[in-house]
Every structure is written in C-alpha cells, then in structure tokens.
Amino acid sequence: LSQARAGIISTVEVLKVMEAFVNEPNYTVWSDLSCNLGILSTLLSHTDFYEEIQVFVKDVFSPIGERLGWDPKPGEGHLDALLRGLVLGKLGKAGHKATLEEARRRFKDHVEGKHVLSADLRSPVYVTVLKHGDSTTLDTMLKLHKQADMQEEKNRIERVLGAISQPELIQKVLTFALSEEVRPQDTVSVIGGVAGGSKQGRKAAWKFVRDNWEELYNRYQGGFLISRLIKV
C-alpha cells in the first residue's frame, strides 16, 4: 500500500495481495487490512469505483465473517471477540445482505429489551443499522443515548452517529454534537464520526466546523482537541 500511495505500483496490485488474506485468522492483520481498505474507500468515494470497492470488501471479509458468526464460541480469546466486531462492522457498512438483516434483527431485540447486545457487538450493529437507516433509526439511537446510564455507552453511540447517510440527518447529528446532550470534550468525536462516515458527511462536517468556528475555538482554545478536530 505504501508503494501504491507513492505511485510506484498500481493499486490493483495491492487489492490482489489483499485477496490472498481470506483465510487469515489473526486480528492484527485484519485490523491493518480494514484500515487500508478504509483509506482506499475514502479516496474512491469521489469516483465511479466506490460501489465496486464495497463489493470487494464484501468478497474479502465474508469468508471470515461466516467462520466467526455472531456469537462467541467456547474457548475463544479476547482477540476473537475484537475480530468479530471488526469484521461484522466492515461487512455491515459495505451492505452485506445477511449481516445487515441480522444486525437489524438484533438491534430491534436490543431496543425492545428482549435480548441486550453484548458490549463488543454494539458498535458494529449500531454502525450497520445507521448506515442503512432512516430518521426513525437515528431517533432510536438518540433515545438510547439519552437513556444510557454509563458514559462508555454514550461515547460508543456518539462515535457511530456519523454513519447515517441522508443529508438532513447528517445535519441533525452535527447540531446534536454542539448540544448540551454531548459533553464538550466529546463533541469532536461526533463531528469526526460524521467526517469519516461518508463523502456527504465529510463535506457537511467541514462546512459545519467553518460555520461554527468561533464557538468551537472559544470552547477548546489552543488545546489538543482543536487540533484533533482539524485533523479529522
């Protein structure tokens, strides 16, 4: 990937190498693959190849997703749980049909209190239903945020809200970022989530930061949060 980014080799060569990892069991390797594919997806979001890279993501990640399944197996380690969350989140965002259907089913049960999601499955499920959700999905997520007793759960929800796709809902999330519902130190996570969520989100987040620059700058002064905000 470094060679492709430097223009020495074709990105096609990178994708060919990635295909060779379909039977890889190691979390650290998949995390690296996921990160690199995320970089490519961001670059390709401004081209006609964006949908094709999503198909590629589904092809590469679905075999490991099928092997892992949704539920922990006896004798699994911590890294297997991390890998499951990573893979399901990647497949869900890419629109993998079976993953999306199962995420929606489990989310419904979670909201209704029938079967509460385990902590390691919440982020991938939330991201998946939001990415392919509507105003009702977002309202439900904001309600979960309001009801959450633990700050950890509030932060988890704040980080994924930017996955929502519709322009008017993206604006709603950005407005929420500066509301009293979100701690000042967590506002950056919400805006950053929008910036990383989609091409539309990136543009909307950049405009939002410029339009609200005075308030944001006064809030963070010269601290590390303002530099983190600009970086995202």
From TrEMBL:
GO cellular component: cytoplasm; extracellular space; membrane
InterPro entries listed in its UniProt record: ERAP1-like_C_dom (IPR024571), Peptidase_M1_aminopeptidases (IPR050344)
BP terms from Gene Ontology: peptide catabolic process; proteolysis
Keywords: Aminopeptidase, Hydrolase, Protease
Membrane-spanning segments: none
UniProt similarity note: Belongs to the peptidase M1 family.
Entry annotated with the keyword Lipid metabolism: no
The ERAP1-like C-terminal domain, residue ranges: 3-231
Organism in which the protein naturally occurs: Aegotheles bennettii
Molecular function terms from GO: metalloaminopeptidase activity; peptide binding; zinc ion binding
Full protein name: PSA aminopeptidase
